[in-house]
Amino acid sequence: MARSSSHYLFNFNHRVSRDLNDIANDIRSDAKLYFLIAAVTLCTFVFSSLYGYTGKLSFFSYMRALNVLVPISLTLAGSGYFFVLLLRREKSPIQCYVNKVKLLYQYRARVISSFVLLTAISIFMSAFSSFKGLIPIIHPFQYDLLFHQLDVWLFAGNEPWTVVHTLLDSPYITFTLNFCYNLWFFLMWGVVCYFLLSSKSPLRTHFFLSWLLSWTLLGMILAMCLSSAGPVFLSKLGYDNHGYGLLLQLLQQQDAWLTEHNSWGLFALETQEDLWLAYSEGKDMLGSGISAMPSMHVSMAVLMALTMNAINRTLGIVFWLYALVIFIGSISLGWHYALDGIVSAPLTWLIWWFAGKISHSNTQPKRLANA
Questions:
Q1: What is the mean pLDDT of residues 10-29?
Q2: Cβ(117)–Cβ(196) under 8 Å?
C-alpha cells in the first residue's frame, strides 16, 4: 500500500511539474504580447499621473465582466457543440462529447495559459477604457465640426447619413444595421477566444499584436490627438449648425415605429443616452467613454476580415462584407462621421502589415482536433 501511494504521488508530482513547464513555455512564447500589455498599462498609469487623474484608473474593471462572460461562453459552447453533434446525426453523440472533454483535459496546459493571457488582456482593456474616459477631460472635444465639414466635402455637399438613409430608407434596415453593430462585440469575442485556444503560430501572434496595437495606436493615442464626440452627441455639446439633429429625430421616429410594430426598438439610442449620462455625470460604466475618431468598430471589423481572410478566403469575403455593414451602420446610427471609418480602415491595415513583419505570419493556426 505504501509503495502504491508513493508511486501515485510520484506520478502526480510529475504530471504537475510537466503541466507547469508547459504553461511556462506557452507564456514565454507569448512574451511579445505580455510585454506590449505591460508597456501600455504602465504608460497609461504614468500618463494619468502626470495629469493627476490616477484616481480615475481601474485596471481590473473588465475582470468583473469576465466572471460573467466566461461561464456564459463556456455554457453556450458546451451546449452548442452537443446540438451540432445531434444535427450531424452522430451515432454516439454522448461519446463524442466525452471525447471532446477528454481532449480539452489533454490540452489543459494550453487552456490554463489561455486564461492567463485572457487575464492580461482584461487588464489591457481596463487600461484602455480608463484612458478613453480621460480623453475629453485632458483634450476636450474640438474636431467634430472639422470632421463634419470634411464629411460634407467628401460626399459632394451632402451629409453622409442623408445618403445612407436615402438609399436604405426602411426602419427594418436600420434595425438590421443596429443588430449587426451590436453583434460586433460577440464576433470579436469569438475571434479572440479562437486564437486564445489555438496552437502557437505566426498567425496567432500576428492577430494579437495587430489587435493590441490597434487599440493602443488608434483607440488611445490617435483618439486623444483627434478628440471628437461623434454626430449623435453634437447637439448635446451645444453645436447646432449641422443636420445631425434631424438624424436623431429620424432615428427616434424609426425606434417608435419599430417598438409599436415589433416591440424591438433601436438599441443604439439607449446606449447613446447611457454613454452621455456616464460622461456628463462622471459615472463609472463598463465600456464608457465617448470617442469618435477613429472608429474602433470599423478598425476591429477590418482586422477580423484580414485575419479570417488569412485562414479562409470565403470566410474572409463574409467578414469584409460585415466590415462594410459596420461602416454603413456607424454612419446610419449616428455613432461616427464617415471620416472616422475612412481613416481607421487603412491605418488598421498598416498595423496588420507591421505586425506581420514582426510575427512573420505565413502559416495557419492549428485547431484542436475534432472529437
A1: 73
A2: yes
Residue 131 DSSP code: H
Q: What's the pLDDT band for 3 if we cut at 50, 70, 90?
A: low
The CA–CA distances, whole Å, from 117 to 29, 37, 248, 267 equal 11, 10, 41, 32
Q: From CA 246, how far away is CA 310, in angstroms rounded? A: 41
Q: What is the DSSP letter of 140?
A: -
Q: 4 pLDDT band (50/70/90 cuts)?
A: low
**C-alpha grid cell for residue 328?**
454603413
Please determine, for residue 16, whether its predicted confidence score (pLDDT) is greater than 90.
no
DSSP per-residue codes, 276-336: HHHHHTT---TT-----SS-HHHHHHHHHHHHHHHH-HHHHHHHHHHHHHHHHHHHHTTS-
Tell which residue, 288, 24, 331, 310, has the closest CA to residue 191: 310
Residues in the chain: 371
Torsion angle of the four alpha carbons 225, 231, 236, 241, in this order, in degrees rounded to the nearest 10? 100
CB 122 within 8 A of CB 62: yes
| Contact yes or no for 304/188 (Cβ under 8 A) | yes
The pLDDT-based confidence of 201 (bands split at 50, 70, 90) is confident
Confidence grade of residue 368 (pLDDT, cut at 50, 70, 90)? very low
CA dihedral defined by 175, 176, 179, 180, rounded to 10 degrees? -140
**Where do the structural domains in the chain lie, given as residue ranges?**
15-359
- Identify whether the C-beta of residue 335 lies closer than 8 Å to the C-beta of residue 229: no
pLDDT (tens digit per residue) in 126-147: 899 889 888 888 888 989 989 9
Could you tell me what percentage of the chain is helix, strand and coil, using 3-state DSSP and rounding each to the nearest 5? Answer: 80, 0, 20
Q: Percentage of residues in the chain with pLDDT exceeding 70?
A: 87
3-state secondary structure at position 201 = coil
> How far apart are the C-alpha atoms of 92 and 95, rounded to whole Å?
5
| Under 8 Å between Cβ of 193 and 211 | no
Our CA angle for 225, 335, 345, nearest 5°, is 60
CB atoms within 10 A of CB 21: 11
Q: Distance between CA atoms of 33 and 123, rounded to whole angstroms?
A: 13
